Amino acid sequence: MEIKWVEDFLALAHTLNFSKAADERHVTQSAFSRRIKQLETWLGTTLIDRATYPSRLTEAGEKFIPIAQETLKSLYQVRHGFQANQTLEAQTISFIALHTLSFTFFPPWLKEISDAVAPVFTRLRPDSGSVEGNVNALVDGDCDFLLTYVHPSVPLLLDASEFDYKVVGFEQIIPISAPDADGNPLHMVGRDEQPFDYIGYEKSSFFGHLLSELFALKMPEHRLVHEGSMSIGLKGMSIAGWGVAWVPHSLIAEELANGQLVQGADPSWNIPLEIRLYRSRNNQRGVIEKFWNRLPDLRNSSDHN
Fold first, then answer.
1. Which positions fall inside the HTH lysR-type domain (predicted)?
2. Quick check: bond before 54 cis, omega within 30?
3. Beta partners for 121?
4. pTM for this entry
C-alpha cells in the first residue's frame, strides 16, 4: 500500500466527486480512479459505491475514514520528528571532557566560540574516568572533540596523521592544604623533612598518571591518606584538613583568595598544563569544520607564562 492512496481516499471522501478529488490531488481522473481501486484491492473491500451519483461511501468507506486520518497523522508526526532530529544531529557537536574542565573551563569557553558559530547544539559526554577511555571515545567516533589537559609526562598516543589539536587554554596544578590557626599550611610538602599526608588520584585518571610519572623520583616521604578520581573530591578532602592535594587552580582560585586553602608547597611544585582540543581529521561535517576554523590556536601564546 502507498500513502498517496490513503491521501486520495480522504480527498474523495471529502468531495464525493472523482473529478474534483483528482484535480485536488493534481492527477488525471483515470490515474486517480486507478489508485482508489488499488487501495480497495489492498484492503479487500469496496470503499466507494460507484452505482450512485454523486458517489457515496460504503459502510466500509465510512469506517475507514477515521483510520485513514489517524494513520496519516501518525506517519506525518513520525516523519516530522525524524526530520527535526536529523537537522538537529547535523548541527550537533559532541564533546568528551575531563571532569574539572567540564564545569570550570568548558561553559564560558564554549559560549564565546559558539556565539560566532550559531546556531549549534552541543552534547557533553561524561568523563570516562581514565585517559585511555577518553582517547578511545574520540578514536571510536563516539564524540567529535576531546577536551583534555596535556603534559609531556602523559602521552595521549594519538596519531598526528589522523588527529589534529589546538591549544585552547592553560592551567596550573597547585598543591594545596587547609590552613592552621595562624594561616600557615596545615600540611606541607617537604617541611622539616617530615612525611606529609597526601591526597592522591586513582592511577587510571589523568592526574593519577601525571603525578605518578612526574613525582616518581622526586616526591618526598609521605603518607597516602585518601585516593579519588575527581579533583573536586580531592579539593573537599583538603579543605577538611586531610592533607596536601594537587588541584587545578581554576577549581580553587576562590578558596585561595579567601584563605580557606593555602599553597601546600613552594611554587616549584606547581605543574603547568596545556588545555587542548583534539579532533579526527576524517571528521569533515560542515558544523565541525566551521567550529574548528573559528578556534584560535594558543600553542605559541605566552599567556601561560
1. 1-58
2. yes
3. 92
4. 0.69
